[in-house]
Structures are given as structure tokens and as C-alpha cells.
Write a structure and sequence with these properties.
6 helices, alpha+beta, 7-stranded mixed beta sheet, globular, OB fold (Dihydrolipoamide Acetyltransferase, E2P)
């Protein structure tokens, strides 16, 4: 009898231990999923210092915190949040807009020794570029240089410019005369660097409260990525977006298994859906995807370089190739809208001296419509660094 009791108690202890282990696993799964930047780096931070001045950043400010604070973070082999640079250029640079607006970008770079250098560049409403450099964390610099410095430059004398070399991309303040020896280097990165962005999705606002919002993902997003159908998140400012507004939600990657799923929102952006909206999703792969061929539904070939193109039509996300095949949209509609956007000064274009090929520069992607002397009439989609 005693032996039977011992066996019973042993089994009971094992069951209790298994239950405890199951509960702990469930708890940590619900509350500590591993959000990442696309590789093995786990990021559990939430935005804290995005609006803080350089003087107010903590001494131990980390790369992970800078990423979720929506900084442009340039490492040795990866660049994070390049879309923030694209947005800044789109708002400020005369190469991208005829009507610059005030904006600010924070850049985090690292020395060869791994020391963090932080730089703020701001374009003000009165036409000034203000550049602040923070060298306080560079232990290898001279002690007298470990400080925050600020310089101002007039937009009447300087313009923001992106220089595309064969190996590197440079962001410069260039004199209006174009004298490179007098230019101010803002940042630089390799053209072959791997791009990493915080996760994002497109959805419709279905509920707003004073400090929170509920968004339903658009139809088709579940085919583009593994998502829940609804997400709720806190907002630290009053977004004047009505219920029914289509938005792009960028978040840290942390998803809590509740319903609706809870996330930590980093950025909320209204999506213009007057006709349709194109989305470029970078793949970090040197490949060209054929979206259409001249013997198919278009009279020329259509390619997507180093990424995939999607389109939002009627509040539904589709692969652009699928949308073209199903006649949901035509290339003529896309190109005509690009021309309209140039006329309405929403974007700028450039013309090549090869017979008249045209590049249309959007905030997060580019379109090139070839019109070359060798009879090439193809269309190329790609990221903002796309060149013919």
C-alpha cells in the first residue's frame, strides 16, 4: 500500500511540474515573443526618445533603442529604417520636391571601433539646415571633441543632395554652385548594404480612443505576411485620423497574444487612396522579377528589381503582377498617375539623355519608363536608389 501511495504521489508531482512548465511557457510566449529586425537581433524596446534633444539622450543609448525610435541607423553591414531617410529627402531635397517642408532626421552611425555617433539634421520653415553632431559617446576621439556641436546653413546657399556612386551613396549638403570641395557630408553607406526595416502592415482604422487605436488589416495582407486580422496599440499623440482611414502601421515587432493582438506602434502614416497605392517591399536580393512581358498584357517588359511590388486597390492588397494579369490595374494607369503626380508637384521626375527615358521618384520607390534610342520601352520598378 505504501509503495502504491509513493507511486501515486510521484505521478502527481510529475503532473504538477508539467502543468507549471506549460503555464510558464505559455506566459513567456504571450508576453515575450522575440521581435526582430529581420535577423537574429532581438528587439524588445519601445519608442522612448524619438522627440528628445540630443542633450537628453541617455549615455547608454543603444542601437536597438535607436531603431525603434525611428532613427536612420547605419551599421557596418546593415542599414535600419532607410525609409526615414527616403521620407526626409522626399520632404526636403529639391531633387525630390519643389515645395520643401520642415522636417527632421536623426542618424546613428558607428566608428570602426564601434563607437556611436549621433547626428540630427533639421530643415526649418524659414529655410535653414541645422546640423547637430553628438560625439559624447566616442571614447577614442580627443576629449575636447567629445561634445555636441551645432551648425546652421542657409537653404539659399546649400541644397540637400544624394550622390550615387558605384560603391557608395553619400547624402550631402551641396553648395548651389555644386562645389563638392565645399560640401557637408551628412552620412554615407554602401550600395550593397543590407536593408532592414521595422515590421509594418496596412489596415483600416475601426476604432479610436483618446490614447489608443484599433486597426483592421486590409484584405490580402495575410498573403503578404503572417498577421492577425486586428491590432490595437497606444498612441502618444492625438492623430486626427477618422474611423475608416487607411493607414500604414509600423511597430517594434513585439506582438502580445491577446485579441485583438497588442503591439507597440512606432509610426502611423495615412495612405493616399485616391485611385490606388503602390508598395515596394525590399528583398535584399539582387534579382529582377518579371511582372509583365511585351508578348503578354503590355507592349513592353515590366520588371521589379531587388524587391516585390504590391498595389492597394479598393482596400485590398494584391501582388502587382496578379493585379495586372486580372486587369485590376493597367500600366497605363500607373504611368498616367505618375505624370499627374509630377504635374501636381507631389513627386519629381528626371529625364535621361538616352532618348528620353524618365524616372519618377516616389517616397519609397522609383519607376523608370525607358524610351531609349535602342528601342527599349521597358518599365522598371525599384527602391529609391534605382538607376538606369
Amino acid at each position: 500500500m505504501k509503495k502504491g501511495v509513493k507511486i501515486f504521489l510521484g505521478i502527481l508531482v510529475i503532473i504538477v511540474v508539467l502543468v507549471v512548465i506549460f503555464v510558464l511557457i505559455k506566459y513567456f510566449k504571450n508576453n515575450n515573443q522575440n521581435p526582430t529586425t529581420g535577423d537574429d537581433e532581438i528587439i524588445t524596446n519601445i519608442p522612448k526618445y524619438a522627440t528628445k534633444n540630443l542633450e537628453d539622450l541617455p549615455k547608454d543609448y543603444s542601437k536597438e533603442q535607436a531603431i525603434v525610435d525611428n532613427c536612420l541607423v547605419i551599421g557596418n553591414d546593415k542599414i535600419y529604417n532607410k525609409s526615414q531617410l527616403d521620407n526626409f529627402l522626399n520632404n526636403v531635397s529639391p531633387s525630390y520636391t519643389k515645395n520643401p517642408i520642415s522636417d527632421k532626421l536623426r542618424i546613428v552611425q558607428f566608428t570602426i571601433e564601434g563607437q556611436m555617433i549621433i547626428k540630427d539634421i533639421e530643415y526649418t520653415a524659414d529655410g535653414k539646415y541645422i546640423i547637430a553632431n553628438d560625439l559624447t559617446r566616442d571614447e577614442y576621439s580627443a576629449e575636447e571633441d567629445r561634445k555636441i556641436t551645432k551648425e546652421e546653413y542657409s537653404a539659399n546657399e546649400y541644397k540637400l543632395f544624394k550622390s550615387m556612386g558605384n560603391e557608395y551613396v553619400e547624402i550631402l549638403l551641396l553648395t548651389n554652385e555644386g562645389k563638392t570641395e565645399d560640401s557637408i557630408l551628412i552620412c554615407t553607406y554602401s550600395r550593397n548594404i543590407e536593408l532592414q526595416e521595422l515590421p509594418s502592415f496596412y489596415g483600416k482604422i475601426i476604432e479610436t480612443k483618446e490614447n489608443s487605436m484599433l486597426v483592421e488589416t486590409l484584405e490580402g495582407e495575410d498573403k503578404r505576411q503572417n498577421l492577425s486580422d486586428k491590432y490595437t496599440f497606444e498612441t502618444d499623440k492625438n492623430y486626427e485620423y477618422e474611423v475608416g482611414t487607411i493607414v500604414k502601421v509600423t511597430y517594434t515587432g513585439l506582438v502580445r497574444e491577446s485579441y485583438p493582438a497588442q503591439i507597440d506602434m512606432v509610426n502611423l502614416e495615412k495612405v493616399d487612396l485616391e485611385k490606388f497605392n503602390l508598395i515596394f517591399e525590399n528583398s535584399n536580393e539582387e534579382r529582377a522579377t518579371i511582372l509583365s512581358t511585351e508578348d503578354g498584357i503590355t507592349e513592353y517588359n515590366v520588371y521589379s528589381f531587388e524587391g516585390d511590388m504590391f498595389v492597394i486597390i479598393d482596400e485590398k492588397i494584391m501582388n502587382l503582377r496578379q493585379a495586372l494579369l486580372e486587369n485590376k490595374i493597367t500600366m497605363e494607369e500607373i504611368l498616367n498617375k505618375a505624370k499627374e503626380d509630377v504635374e501636381n508637384e507631389k513627386i519629381v521626375k528626371g529625364v535621361y539623355s538616352d532618348g528620353g527615358s524618365t524616372i519618377y521618384k516616389y517616397k519609397n520607390y522609383s519607376i523608370i519608363k525607358c524610351n531609349r534610342l535602342d528601342s527599349n520601352k521597358d518599365v522598371y520598378f525599384g527602391n529609391t536608389d534605382l538607376l538606369l
